[in-house]
């Protein structure tokens, strides 16, 4: 009983203290822990905000008669925003003008299609000519309409031996490449993405999720279970992707949310993939940690568990941003797989999400769709976020000195930013200041670059002090020889003296 | 009187000198043991060429080497989160298993006509640590002189030191107990099992102890509440 009392007292005081620290943390309306990054040791390092909310678009601010109901997807083409309002069986086409967002039209039918209306559409896509593709999930088709919403063609269940005819064809996500090929992710289809040519013919599957099972699983299943048990267990089947998006070069980025936590830590799960034309994963991972979202899963919290990426978008500079539904967070990664920043949280306030489903970008602005709040949150990059983009762009273009200067600006805002140290170090190496470059690489724990800088540094040092090196080596070699000689002569002299005495 | 005192002084200083010389010789003997382990370990205890003091020294040097390695190896070759390292904890996590394994080995081999006493086993094991000290200590320096691409040298030397230690420990046990290689191998596995049993007993002992103490503490409290 007494223990209990003491425990409650302790808990109460802890809560009071926690509140106090929370109150301290709020300074300018933004919590300082809103944006963060992971340091070399996998610990959370707070960082300045890379993005801040520009505005939140609700049904009311668009003047919609029937408010959005569980929208599932967003698509952005130029200044146009397409919202797939799944619950109302329609697509909303919005237009951005400066910071104003207005409704252009409501797409709820495609003339000439059979049937003309949609049934729970899951995704929408628009190509450069203004053709609209709609994933009409419950009507078992992907519709293509021209910009005046006249029916062009539909992509339906493939009639092919490789496609199981007994399962319903439920296309839920889709992308279209520049030559008009359509890639569809369908529910219950685990052979990969269904690929159609521009004329609507089915040409197979790409990028099947490889099956993961351990040797132990296999042995257990083969030798220690009866047939009846085996029938009841889940079989080793690949899982379907969660969502897909296509970058400017035609590579498909896919996210995967079905994996075991153990696989994630050893990078067997690969929650983010970049698929080439034959469907193999070519995502570059050059950081200590693979791109898996949160490394710290906040034990004993309600939202315990790894990040599950609901959607992903790729900026024009190959930086990709994944949207996590577990904790409503956004994770930005550079083309090398290094985390740039992470921000977001769960909740009702601005910049927090209850049901993260879809993310798109417009330039560097990010649009995030929330299916529970029926809202679109628009983020714009802060000075800090823009500096990071600028620096990596400059480096890619070959402007190394310029990029180093930009990274120095970033360091002024965030002194814990490893990429900045590496960027400055690289520029210093080009200026042949190897010793200084080593310092920067060491701060970022970048072994490869440190090793390279060190090799040049060592060479330089040896060349500069070659005289001393020769002298030291010579001394080390010659001194023992001379000493031996001296000893020998001494011994001989003593021997001679002794003999002389004896005789 | 002064002469007597002088004599005593010189006598005691003579003893100390002799002891020091013996200590130095037993330290130096390690160099013989690590290259000729069969002969070396046999003479270590039977010819009294090793000493307990030297064994303690090697164990201490081993721990010091380990700590220095954690703290001063170039970051290219080790990722030790310096901000979290607790030196005492790390040392204890090496020292404790070492002693428990020695104890387990002694308690088992003594039942199956092993010739070694606990003191002998401990000494042999400490002498087996010498290659670790001799290789890893210079390796700390080397790590600052090579780049990560040349890390093969580092890792090869590292594994050499560990394998050498392992072989020495094996031969050491063989010679101390006068066992054959097969029997030694069996006893190594048995020792690991024995160490687990010892750990279990320690855990049980402490949990029972804390329960027993808790009982008396609460009894005392109850009585003092009643009386006050």
Protein architecture, described:
- The complex is a heterodimer of chains A (503) and B (228).
- Chain A is α+β, with helices and mostly antiparallel strands.
- Chain A has eleven helices and 26 strands.
- In chain A, the strands form six sheets. In chain A, strands 1, 2, 19, 20, 21, 22 and 23 form a seven-stranded mixed beta sheet that branches. A four-stranded antiparallel beta sheet of chain A has the order 3-26-25-24.
- In chain A, strand 14 and strand 15 form a beta hairpin.
- Chain A is elongated, with a radius of gyration of 31 Å.
- With 228 residues, chain B is mainly alpha-helical.
- Chain B has one domain.
- The radius of gyration of chain B is 23 Å and the shape is globular.
- Chain B starts with a helix and ends with a helix.
- Chains A and B meet through helix 10 of A and loops of B.
What keyword list fits this structure?
heterodimer; A: 503 residues; alpha+beta; Neuraminidase; 2 domains; seven-stranded mixed β-sheet; four-stranded antiparallel β-sheet; 11 helices; elongated; B: 228 residues; mainly alpha; 8 helices; globular
Strand-helix topology:
The complex is a heterodimer of chains A (503) and B (228).
Chain A: H1 2-25, E1 35-38, E2 44-46, E3 51-57, H2 59-62, E4 73-77, E5 80-85, E6 90-97, E7 100-107, E8 123-126, E9 132-136, E10 141-145, E11 151-155, E12 170-176, E13 182-187, E14 193-196, E15 202-206, H3 215-223, H4 227-232, E16 243-246, E17 252-255, H5 261-265, E18 272-275, E19 309-314, E20 320-324, E21 329-333, E22 339-346, E23 352-353, E24 356-362, E25 365-370, E26 375-381, H6 383-397, H7 400-413, H8 418-430, H9 434-443, H10 447-464, H11 466-502
Chain B: H1 2-35, H2 37-46, H3 52-72, H4 87-109, H5 118-128, H6 130-143, H7 151-177, H8 181-227
CATH architecture of the largest domain in chain A: 6 Propeller
Largest sheet of chain A: 7 strands, mixed
The helix fraction of chain B, in percent, is over 70%
Give the C-alpha Rg of chain A. 31 Å
Count of DSSP strands of chain B: 0
Largest interface, C-beta closer than 8 angstroms, per-chain residues: A-B, 11 and 11 residues
Full CATH superfamily name of the largest domain in chain A = TolB, C-terminal domain
Instruction: Please give the share of residues in helix of chain A.
Output: 25-40%
- Note the total helix count of chain A: 11
CATH topology of the largest domain in chain A: Neuraminidase
Mean pLDDT of chain B: 90
Poorly predicted regions of chain A? 20-30
Count of the separate structural domains of chain A: 2
Succession of helices and strands of chain B: HHHHHHHH
Q: Which structural class is indicated by helix and strand composition of chain A?
A: alpha+beta
Tally of alpha and pi helices of chain B: 8
Total number of beta strands of chain A: 26
Shape annotation of chain B = globular
